[in-house]
Amino acid sequence: MKILSASQIREVDAYTIQHEPVTSIDLMERAARACFKRMLRLVEHDTSVFVFCGKGNNGGDGLALARMLSDSGFHCITILVNHTQTFSSDAQQNFNRLKEKYAAGIIEINSSADFASIPVISGAVAVDALLGTGINKPVEGLLGDVIRFVNAGFRYIISIDMPSGLFTDQSASQNKNIVRASLVLSFQFPKLTFLLPENNEFVKHFEIINIGLDTTAIAAQKTSQYYTTGDAIRPLLKPRNKFSHKGTYGHALLMAGSKGKSGAAIISAKAAMRSGCGRLTVSSNPETIRALLSQLPEAMSMESDAEQIEGIDKPENYDAIAFGPGVGFHEDTQHTLKKILQYYSGKLVIDADGLTMLSENKTWLGFLPPETILTPHPKEFERLCGKQNDGFERLHALKQFAIKNNCIVVLKGAHTAVAMPDGNTFFNASGNASLAKAGSGDALTGIILGLLSRGYTPPQAALIGVYMHGLAADLYTQKRSAESMLISDVIELLPKAFKQLEA
To answer: Global pTM?
Structure first.
């Protein structure tokens, strides 16, 4: 799914109006109807709903929604904020339609003194339709006062398309007046700003609402940013051939673990085997190997003589290699990574301690095999690439790093961003906060390794691996608390995750 800028979305709107054909007021009605249908499933019928409307097109959406809620029997109170003298044309029409039928339910706000006229109703839901995607400067004055009032007065806030005050395509760090939405009903597309960690308090959750924008216009829009859903992953999955054998699905090498860090290797190894590879060899210290084989007899082992990974023979014998989870920083282990980078030209994943080695030896980046997959968390990426001031700067740095080093960077987070060497970035739709646990990154590395060995290209393996990792966590939290999940639970649910998307 494409992620478009505010100007691109306006172009798609205009094309839809011109070519469907549909009038702008009817397109607004369609958008409001889609929100109304979603609210019927979200809000109990006896709940009071306060709809806060500006006088632009986002306010027009809210005014149409207020009419529909009132028609359906909801106790709906419309708060019209007169922050400007004139309505947009479509907002004016929807205000007239609402006033004609439900004038008694409209409260007009001309100053903060008018807030006293808004009744206090326990358990009421607020709908934010004050401002849309077009703003590019901080909200002040009366609208700022209203936003603070909404944030303070309501526990559950639904924003229409955008939380008012939040910028679509740039950092809003200087804006103190932004609606803290419990849920955003986003028209047709996710907005890039929803996916950035600094905006979590404003976009606790979002859903994409299809309003029937023209598919030809959407296809014509060029973008380098995408939102990866299950519908995008499903066609990538490869069926297993009836007459295949273990050799068909490759031989993976996992270099992980050291004294006191056996768990990282075990988690990665289990995840790799659950992700389809034909054979897996684990290279590690004796302590780790003994622990691993007691839990995963399907794995083969390459045991070092010391307490750390000391070397590797014939890396070219492996279809894919993963290096880093729990390996430590012993000098011999660092030499091993350097040897792999210099002499191995196959599919490679580098994680955890391996990423720290790269950040301390940045000349080694020049040795990366094409489409090497790096899987940093934000702090690891900062060590590799320097500090950025906000999410937009970080995404720019991420894109440039992937292009410059001809690698794939999986920047882990709530919406893990996968940056490709061609300049495209894919944000992941699956997963939840249960993954914020020790071992989560180790499991992801193992999943990606298994997929690489099994025959997926590095871009495919990165996208599928990230999505399946998150989907397994989502399956867990459907019935159980995120607080209690172990990363071992994610691995055990990988079969169910794959099954869900198999054709």
So the answer is: 0.96
